[in-house]
Amino acid sequence: MTEVTLFEGGRIFTGLRYAESLLVEDGRVVAVGTSDEVRRSAPTGAEHRPLDGRLVIPGLIDAHLHLPDLTRQREGLDLGHISSIDELVTVVREWASGHPGRGITARGWDPERSANRAWPSRHDLDRAERERPVVVVHASGHAGIANTAALERAGVRPGTADPPGGRIGRDPDGRPDGRLFESALAEFVGRPDDLQLPDAAALGRTVRWCAALGLTTLGAMSVAPEEAATYRAMEAAGTLPLRVRAYLHARRWRAGDRPSFDAADRGRRFAIVGVKTFADGAFGTRTAWLSAPYSDDPGNSGMPVVEEEELAAIAHAAGEQGLAPAIHAIGDRAVDAAAAALERPRADAPAPGRIEHAALTPPATWPALDRVRPVLVVQPGFVWSDHWLRARLGPERVRWAYAFRTLLGRGLVVAGSSDAPYDPVDPWRGIRAAVERADPAGRSANPTAQEALTFERAVQLYTANGGVALGEPGLGTLEAGAPADLVVTTVPTLDAAVHAGATSVGETWAAGRRLTTGPDAQTV
After folding, report:
1. Helix, strand or coil for residue 510?
2. Is residue 285 part of a domain?
């Protein structure tokens, strides 16, 4: 039976322009324009949904997040609110008392929130729990702290060498102090018992929560084969309400652990799109790879986590297999390396090559970006979260951090995302940060007014541009032929929606079906 829905009596932002009315049939937009134009296209008996002055926008796209880690943080031990080492020890001890018998992994610790910005050590975590392994993951996900039990379980001892692309923190006497940077953290993250893949029920709770924020497509990054299989099973069972587009875990993929995929999947709720790899680390851990040393750590320019030749080989191999490469690159030196890797000739992939984060893009990076034309998948929320960045980079260099308007002005496609759980998943927070730059307390990683976006361009990061990033240009718009993924807000204008944030989400629709409740429909 054909399902036809007519939205009118408000305002439609298609992701590209404004219109008065919208007609949806069998999950797709068939007409958008003035009320008279669209009504002429509506068949008798179409379901009529009066907007009563409200605004409709395309369903929002988060082009880069980590669903298992987000689920673990939502349902596990979240340290995002902790502001001192003593408080951290207390919270971990209390969690351990209430959750016996398992290793403990806590997420969200950020030393920038503490008064002296001090990192805990294994000795601090031993005060919380001595018998079981404990790993505290840094807010960026690029470092962690392990207690003595976790170090011993992993075989890390005074003579253990730093792994390629990583570093083990050490006491003055050379003994491991518990800090693990980049690839060194990978030696531990998979070991605690509670880091198994969340089950489908838990992932489903996270996905439904995302829908309530107005998200209708999620770009899942570093997806393991087991995770891909779970999404496929959820789709088959009818429990995957949103679109999930997966970029596979590069190390597993390179080792031959590859889930099957089909280009025809792009029309389904779940599809495999590409392969995700890393060029460097993060600003918070001073492992983002810079062309010159950190201003607050003059002997350190960060680090590459993969050799440049290997980076190019991964990008080329992905393209040869029909997958799009996505390269994490935060520092300017890493952005150059990522652009060079994407420049190597390769077979056509179903989506464009991407640079994830592209956080520091001074003029020296522009020639390579202009030549290669990758999609840049950024995190506007970092403009607020990384308000300490000026100390890391210095006043001249920080001017080119999160320079979204400059990049858009060069004709590059810039798509928005959260990198959740390493920043809040709320897309409205990111949109507002792209518009206002400084947070409500007046803090900003780079408050340069010239980089602020209009409301429309900020929303485009999370709609039309997100569809391009995923290789589905119609996705993220409400133009004719596009999937009918949309948000009916509770307010009349885009600026009102952005300022109201997630509370402005009245109804979320995916493929023409309402996922969240709203006013009762009427039929004409």
Report:
1. strand
2. yes
Q: Are residues 87 and 18 located together in one domain of the fold?
A: no
Looking at the structure, tell me whether residues 183 and 292 fall in a common domain. Answer: no
Q: Name the β-bridge partners of 61.
A: 217
* More confident: 260 or 15: 15
User: What Å distances lie between residue 110 and 79, 96, 388, 438, CA to CA?
Assistant: 8, 20, 12, 20
Q: Check which CATH number belongs to the domain holding 325 and give it.
A: 3.20.20.140
Query: What contacts 202, CB < 8 A, 6 or more positions away?
Result: 71, 75
User: Residue 77: which CATH number?
Assistant: 3.10.310.70
Residues 261, 160 within the same domain: no
Helix, strand or coil for residue 217?
A: strand
459 and 345 within one domain: yes
Q: What is the pTM of this model?
A: 0.89
236 within some domain = no
**Cα separation of 347 and 366, whole Å?**
25
Range of the domain at 143: 69-195
Please state the separation of Cα 158 from the chain's center in Å: 36
Do residues 304 and 337 touch, judged by C-beta distance below 8 A? yes
Q: Is 2 exposed, middle or buried (0-12, 13-18, 19+ CB in 10 A)?
A: exposed
**Nearest Cα residue to 475 out of 217, 211, 214, 208:** 217
Whether residue 307 is found in the same domain as residue 423:
yes
Percent of all residues in the chain with a pLDDT value above 90, rounded to a whole number: 77
pLDDT value, residue 81:
86
Give CA–CA dist 177/162, Å, rounded. 13
* Total tally of structural domains belonging to the chain: 3
Q: Which residue has the tokens 């609110």?
A: 81
Distance CA(491)–CA(489), nearest Å, equals 6
* Whether 260 and 339 share a structural domain: yes
Tally the C-alpha atoms within 13 A of residue 250's C-alpha that lie toward its C-beta.
22
- The answer, yes or no, to whether residue 468 has pLDDT greater than 90, is yes
Query: In this predicted structure, what is the pLDDT of residue 345?
Result: 56
Written as one letter, the residue type at 348 is D
pLDDT digits (tens, 9 = 90+) for 128-162: 999 999 999 888 888 899 999 999 988 888 989 98
Does residue 391 share a domain with residue 303?
yes
What kind and span of H or E run contains 433? Answer: helix 427-436
C-alpha–C-alpha distance, residues 152 and 49, integer Å: 62
Per residue in 372-381, pLDDT tens?
Answer: 999 999 999 9
Length of the chain: 524
User: What pLDDT does residue 467 have?
Assistant: 97
Q: What is the pLDDT of residues 202-218, one digit of tens each?
A: 999 999 999 999 999 99
For residue 421, cis peptide bond before it (omega within 30 degrees of 0):
yes
End residue of a domain, out of 195, 224, 239: 195
